From TrEMBL, chains A, B:
This is Rubredoxin-like domain-containing protein. InterPro entries: Flavin_Rdtase-like_dom (IPR002563), NADH-dep_flavin_reductase (IPR050268), Rubredoxin-like_dom (IPR024934), RUBY_RBDX (IPR048574), Split_barrel_FMN-bd (IPR012349). Its cofactor is Fe(3+). One of its GO terms (molecular function) is riboflavin reductase (NADPH) activity. Pfam families: Flavin_Reduct (PF01613), RUBY_RBDX (PF21349). The keyword Oxidoreductase applies. It comes from Tractidigestivibacter scatoligenes.
Amino acid sequence: MDAKAMFSFSYGLYVVSANDGENVGACLINTALQVTGDPLQVAITLNKQNHTTQVVKAAEHFTLTVVSKTADMPFIGRFGFKSSADVDKFEGITTKTSLLFDPYTPEHACAMVCCAVVNTIDLGTHVMFIGEVCDAERVSDEEPMTYAYYHSVLKGKTPPKASSYIEGEDPTKPVVPVSAPKHHFRCNICGYVYETTDEELPADFRCPVCGVGPENFTKID
Amino acid sequence: MDAKAMFSFSYGLYVVSANDGENVGACLINTALQVTGDPLQVAITLNKQNHTTQVVKAAEHFTLTVVSKTADMPFIGRFGFKSSADVDKFEGITTKTSLLFDPYTPEHACAMVCCAVVNTIDLGTHVMFIGEVCDAERVSDEEPMTYAYYHSVLKGKTPPKASSYIEGEDPTKPVVPVSAPKHHFRCNICGYVYETTDEELPADFRCPVCGVGPENFTKID
């Protein structure tokens, strides 16, 4: 069996957010899909360890935004590589409120879909929420970001808590700059590449995307 | 509410096939995704009216192939616009048998994944099968076909039984040939465009992709 076969599955990239009245959760996923047209229903899967999962469970609703190709690694890092338990992911960006009071950002978004949870399915490490769409809106005409684009162009990595994570395997190709007078360090956690003239990263260096220290960086040239 | 917001969701294209010992079913879907990494589990959704759905239910296993960009409309039509109850979809193409005895074709495929059904979820018009992966193999290095590519390049349509069908709406752009000395007729069912010097289609004309007659074609120039 070759688990790498799973790398040819195609996905989009989405932000799931929810507000249960006490807590706000938001995170990045690639596993969202329309499952029926009448009624309009959407399925999403979330890792049970995610703070957002507990907030969606308590709120019984969530809002999904379709991430556009305009999103950069700091935006991806904000929603994908940090925990809502530690930081306010909507701080410093335009924030709107959906019909069911979930916060969401129209920045780097193609569309938003607001859903009421109608079914919850235990998948072991993950949980699937089936949501009935209560509101939907096109936010921009930008092209949706696909997971393949995220891997190939942004050089992003699959975090261990993602549905499509396979241990020891990553579809990310190594970054090989064409002409590099400077040194490049690649974050092992989120894939961010830092360029510097220094031979080593300083001890107090922190990844601008996911926040880890220099011990999590690999020098790639 | 603008249901067209759902058009920005990204999908791949997959063939689901199963053999329950008495019947063989195979059909094209866009709703397949990995839902957990350990154990490796995959979710698919199928319309209850599909013959393949009954075969998967009876077999309690299915095989999924990831369709590659090399697939043409006749291949798409074979699996997407006909019923396994009427035709043998594997006739005339290379056919292999998976670990759980489902037929599948390595033609126009990137990968195959063979799954045992571990959970069945009723979604109303559709049913979701959660399968645990028993075998997986990379079949070719071709690029996976995305649903966006199918719509934009192959000019394919979303059949009414698909999860992502929205009544009266279709993300397909009309086909406008740059220079057309001939006449073009577009199939309302599958989107196939037929080129001819005739002003009208003969009464015995049948769509080479989905098999419908001239009453289902619209002259587009």
